[in-house]
Structures are given as C-alpha cells and as structure tokens.
Amino acid sequence: MGSLPPPSGIQTIDISPLITDNDPVARKATIDQLIAAVHVQGACGIVGHGVSLERLREAFDWSRKFFDLTPEEKAKANHPKGIVPHRGYSGIGREKCLIYTEEELKNMSGELAADFKKPLDFKEHYDIGSDGERVHYNLWIDEHALPGFRTWAQSFYWQMEELSKVVLEAMLDGLEIDEEAKKHILKVHTGHQNGLRLMHYPSAHESTIDRSSLTWCPTHTDFTTYTLLMQDENQGLEIEDRLNPGTFLQATTEIEDRMYLTMGDFGEIWSNGFLPASKHRVIIPRASDGSEVTPKRYSMPYFITPRHDGICGPQDTGKCGTLPSGKYKTGTIQEHIEFRMKYQY
Known about the structure:
The chain is an alpha+beta fold. Helices cover about 30% and strands about 20% of the residues. The strands form 4 sheets. It has an 8-stranded mixed β-sheet. Strands 8-13-10-11 form a 4-stranded antiparallel β-sheet, with no helix packed on it. The chain has a two-stranded parallel sheet with strand order 4-7.
C-alpha cells in the first residue's frame, strides 16, 4: 500500500492540548499535526489557543477606535522615514510591502523608479511593540485622544507573546533539533522584539480600483520567525498554495476566533526549509451584496521576531537534517531585516 498524499488546503489545528493538557501523548499528536500542516503549506489555522473570543472582539474594538481618530491625531505617532524605530502610524501608501530579489535591490538606487510595476498597498496601520524595547521603541498617540489605549495595547501584546512562546516551543519540539540549538533559538526570542500591528484596509468605490496595480497588500513573506494573524469577518487574506505555486487559497473567516499561523523568513532558514515561509497577500474583494463600494477590513498580525543581534542559520539535526544543505546562509537577524526593509519606508 502506497503512502497517502499530503493534505491539501490550509489545515486548521486545535492546539488546546498545548495550552491546557498535560498529557504527553495528546501534546505530541498535536505537535505532529502542526508540523505536518506547516511543512506542506507554510501556514495553518489554529483554534483552542486560549485567547477568548471576548478578548479578540475587544481588540478589534480598540483597533476601530484608533483608526476612527482624526488624521492629525494619528499623525502625532507617525512612523519615521527609515526603518528605526519600526513603530508608529503609517498612512495609506506609506509602506511598500513587497518581495525583492537580491538582483532587484542591486539595480535600485535611492527611490523606486517611476515605472515600478509591482502592485502597491492600500492600507493604514499602527505598529506596537514592547515598552521595554529600546531600539524599536514605541511611538504613542496622546493618552487623552484615546484613554486606556496604551494600557490595553501592552496587555494584549504580552498575552500574545505568551501564546507565541508556547507555539514556538511546540514547533521546535516537532522539528526534533538538538537541545543546544533549541535553547539558542528560544534565547534569542525574548518577546521584546515582537510586533503587534493594527491594520485597516479602507473601502473604496469600484470605479477607482485598478486591481492590476493596487491591492490591499501585495504578495510577500514576513521577515519574522512566524506570524499569528487575527482578522475580522471580511475576506481578503490569501495564502499561496505550495502544492500549486502561483495559485492562492482563501484564509476564510467563518470561524471567528481562528488565527492563521504563517511561517516567516527566519523560521524557514532555521528549519532548513522544512517549515517554508508563507507567501500571502490581501486582495480587494468585491462587495458580497453587489454594491459598488468594497467592504473595509481590519486585521491584527502579531509578528514573532528574534533579537536583532541573534544569529540565524539552517539547522542540520532532526527533521531539518532531512533536506539538502547549502540553500540558506547564516547571518544576523539585523542583516536580513535591513535587506528586506531597504525600500519599505
């Protein structure tokens, strides 16, 4: 009897045994499911993560309140020109969220060319980190503009960090790498370099949209170890089907408390490609009721990022060692982030 084909589509995994169950058998079975799903698609949905539906709804309420502020209030926390600190408010068109090859970057000088053809973003967002981070320090709006916002943001940030550490440890266990490598990877994930991003994709009239040159967010990978994404009820996120490259699968919204886990560049490098980085995009969908105005959308990615002075290189033990060596370079986290962000702001 031959082996079964890999599962198609984006799998949804109940990770509650990682959160509440001390049964090692249940834990291993859950980890095996998680690793198998991400190995195939670079992504999966997760439920049973311990963040209550009420807490998620509260988070989206705060996000909507933030984006409802006047442009003048939001601009008081503007993201600076350049990449440090990677915090604060970015208005529509401010960030260019794109994938560049080394060859493309070599051919660029200073600014994007006037005839640059990659689709550009149509979104606004606000980047939040740890108040204990000194390089990528937070840029806050005035407290009187939205009382309680900063307190909520830091509380939710650290709740997501607790979840992210559980998931990271589970993936490292599932990769079966040696203990010293596992300790190193956990050590460079302090939580202070992570990022919580509030995102608003505005509605627009159909007559103003050229979908060949404008998206809510074009195809990209994240320069993270991995990302946990929360989204509202409006469709838009699509994840590339790695079994059919160039085609995309909808990250559907019918399960309100489902998060999507997408692997990032560092996760792919550390795992020697066993957990590949997810290419994903956010398209501008047409209105489901047939109207000429597209729906607005809110989402919140939580980016799990290592210390910038950490070393990232492919592992050669456990499942990582089952793939050929030589594809990935070893370097600092900072080098890769600077490479990816060169033309982003």
